[in-house]
Automatic annotation (TrEMBL), chain A:
Protein name in UniProt: ABC transporter permease subunit
Segments traversing the membrane: 32-52, 72-92, 136-163, 183-207, 214-237, 262-284
Lineage top rank: taxon: Bacteria
Organism of this sequence: Prauserella halophila
Alphabetical keyword list: Membrane, Transmembrane, Transmembrane helix
The keyword Membrane is annotated on this UniProt entry: yes
Pfam name, any one: ABC2_membrane_2
The keyword Translocase belongs to this UniProt entry's keyword annotation: no
TrEMBL record, chain B:
TM stretches of this protein: none
One Pfam family cited in the UniProt record for this chain: MucB_RseB
MucB/RseB N-terminal domain span: 149-213
InterPro entries in the cross-refs: LolA/LolB/LppX, MucB/RseB_N, Sporulation_related
Compositional bias (Basic and acidic residues): 127-139
Keywords: Signal
Record-linked SUPFAM superfamilies: Prokaryotic lipoproteins and lipoprotein localization factors
Organism: Prauserella halophila
Protein name per Swiss-Prot or TrEMBL: Sigma-E factor regulatory protein RseB domain-containing protein
Length: 289, 352
């Protein structure tokens, strides 16, 4: 079969295929709806924190909610720097991975269900390129989602408080380029984590034609990982869990940035990415047109 | 068939590579072999530690304890804490204690000491008395003959313990000597040995572990998990609180440092015994007890939960036991604590 397809027309450049895929992704109403909803979250957070009195309610490190970012939220109200990161931290727990899983589910399983993947499989495009296009599509979507949150978060904080509150958790005040650099770093890091989730979703997606199966398994996996992560008896397992790396995003707000956890988390995401993509590739190669 | 095999190869290879990567990431950093270092006498090692000026460095210090104390709701977890430490080599430093989503920062600058709590948005500032650091430095310089001081220190230690250098270790990637203090057999203590890992080049203590009888895992360990020597940026040793921060001024001398436990805090402690069975005797000031209650900490309730009630000639009270120390708190607010079994505390209270 390869002999027949390969020499025929391998002229379609990946960039054109990706552009077509992106047009396809961003034309879906649900993509836009998800992005819109994600964009609203930081606005709600910012307004809610500005309306509620942020002092008083936040004794340090106490109460049941403290472990879930209470301290971060307490500082979030005021700062252009902190609100985007806080919004990313909150949504990275559940919503952003869900969005990444949705992108992964639509990319293969969704298209199998509607019959459009058949066109891809029959077209003179090698399966590796097909996967590359799909993976880049997922990556772009997650990047847009993370950027959306960061931008609306920053704008919300800017409107509510102005730009003179760029201070870190260590109490130092940052310059505007430095703060923007940190937000960009956070967005890039979150995108990498989400891409890893998306890659695993793609792998599952290649095996099924029901997008719901992909969503359910990724969501279930995240919940299981979170539960495993909260069990102290399994602390030997924690370095392997992707979700355990996600708290490191807060390190962006410390000064100087402790990079060990961020780098470790990025490497961990890369490992998941390799696993996910190679399984997806293996399934895709052996899939019949 | 060909594609099937290709598919299987890619799947296995990719998954194996990813899993291997995860495994490498999960591997504990301390799994390196002990370095080869020239032999050194305990006395010489102690001397070089006393003489050494800590150089400029940055690192991450972690405290691990397996004391066997249950975690107290509403109190910061003590079992694993890490702090980033920066030091400029000349007495100025910064410590940032990380919490999951906030940070406590302490900055010891040229003239002032700052502490900043990002969760509460509050800062305290204490002016350092003039020349405080100078004096400190001169004192260090005054120990002009470190070998003599070392002899004194080692002699003093050897009254109650055996001091030896027991092999080497790798701490935070640095080669280190292990200095070991073992209590003499007639010392009535819970501690089996105390190990101090000393950097072989900088002669800075890198790690301290306290081991108790019956286990190989340290009951308490504090040390660097990462350390790097070299000049640090100047801005780390200055602090100006962010806008909108509530700043409290403290009078000099009483800095707002982190409060560790409750045992060593509080004024006017007496000492009974010496060596390893030293017992600290004191009285919890009533304002502290009331302060604790107004903070919402129920002292009596806590004692009842963690301590076991005891009675004796000293009256009645509660004993709180951990693996490396015991504290006895009586109903009328007297307190005795030490790295000793309960019996020694009773005697110390009774003989007073």
């Amino acid at each position: 079969m390869e002999v027949m397809t390969e020499p025929a027309r391998r002229t379609a450049p990946v960039s054109r295929l990706v552009r077509a895929e992106l047009r396809w992704i961003f034309r879906r109403p649900r993509t836009l709806a998800v992005l819109g909803l994600l964009g609203v979250i930081p606005v709600i957070m910012g307004i809610a924190l500005a309306v509620a009195d942020p002092t008083g309610s936040s004794s340090p490190g106490e109460g049941p909610g403290a472990g879930e970012g209470g301290g971060l939220l307490a500082t979030a109200a005021g700062s252009v720097l902190v609100l985007p990161i806080a919004a990313l931290t909150m949504t990275l727990r559940m919503l952003l991975p869900l969005a990444a899983a949705m992108a992964g589910a639509d990319a293969l399983a969704g298209e199998t269900a509607t019959g459009t993947l058949r066109g891809w499989l029959l077209a003179p495009v090698s399966r590796g390129r097909l996967l590359l296009v799909k993976a880049l599509g997922v990556a772009t979507f997650t990047l847009v989602a993370a950027t959306m949150i960061a931008v609306t978060g920053a704008v919300t904080a800017l409107v509510l408080n102005g730009a003179d509150t760029l201070y870190t958790l260590s109490g130092t005040t940052l310059s505007i380029p430095d703060a923007l650099g940190r937000i960009a770093l956070a967005v890039g890091w979150v995108t990498l984590q989400l891409w890893a989730v998306g890659a695993v979703a793609l792998a599952i997606s290649a095996f099924t034609e029901h997008p719901m199966v992909v969503l359910a398994s990724v969501l279930g996996g995240i919940i299981v990982f979170t539960v495993l992560g909260s069990l102290d008896a399994l602390s030997w397992l924690h370095p392997v869990l992707l979700t355990e790396a996600w708290w490191a995003i807060v390190d962006v707000l410390r000064d100087p940035i402790p990079d060990a956890d961020l780098i470790g988390g990025a490497l961990k995401a890369a490992c998941y990415l390799v696993i996910g993509l190679s399984i997806a590739y293996a399934r895709l190669v052996s899939k019949d047109g | 068939m060909n594609t099937k095999r290709k598919a299987a190869t890619v799947a296995v290879a990719g998954t194996a590579a990813g899993a291997l990567g995860l495994g490498l990431l999960a591997m504990p950093a301390g799994a390196e072999s002990a370095p080869e270092l020239p032999e050194i006498e305990a006395q010489e090692l102690v001397g070089s530690v006393l003489k050494a000026q800590p150089p400029a460095m940055s690192g991450t210090a972690t405290v691990d304890n397996e004391l066997g104390l249950p975690s107290v709701p509403g109190m910061p977890a003590l079992d694993a804490q890490s702090a980033r430490v920066y030091y400029d080599g000349e007495g100025r430093g910064r410590v940032a204690m990380e919490q999951q989503s906030s940070e406590l920062t302490y900055v010891l600058g040229e003239r002032e000491f700052w502490s900043y709590d990002s969760a509460a948005g509050t800062a305290t500032r204490a002016e350092l008395p003039d020349g405080a650091r100078e004096q400190h430095r001169n004192q260090e310089a005054a120990g002009a003959d470190p070998s003599q001081v070392a002899t004194q220190v080692v002699d003093r230690l050897e009254e109650s313990s055996n001091v030896s250098v027991d092999g080497t270790a790798r701490v935070a990637g640095r080669a280190a000597y292990e200095l070991v203090l073992t209590p003499k057999p007639d010392e009535r203590t819970l501690v089996r040995e105390v190990r101090v890992a000393v950097d072989s080049e900088e002669r800075l203590p890198l790690r301290m572990s306290v081991l108790t009888h019956g286990t190989t895992e340290p009951a308490f360990e504090a040390g660097f998990s990462e350390i790097e020597f070299g000049p640090q940026p100047e801005r780390l040793f200055e602090f100006s609180p962010p806008e909108g921060t509530e700043v409290t001024e403290r009078e000099p001398g009483r800095n707002g440092g982190p409060q560790h436990g409750g045992d060593a805090e509080g004024p006017e402690f007496d000492v009974a015994g010496d060596g390893w069975d030293t017992v600290l005797l004191g009285r919890i000031p009533s304002e502290m007890r009331e302060g604790a209650e107004s903070n919402g900490t129920d002292m009596t309730g806590m004692l009842e939960r963690f301590g076991k009630p005891v009675q004796g000639e000293f009256g009645s009270g509660h004993v709180v036991e951990t693996r490396i120390g015991t504290a006895l708190i009586t109903e009328d607010g007297r307190i005795a604590a030490g790295a000793v079994p309960e019996q020694v505390l009773r005697q110390a209270l009774e003989n007073r």
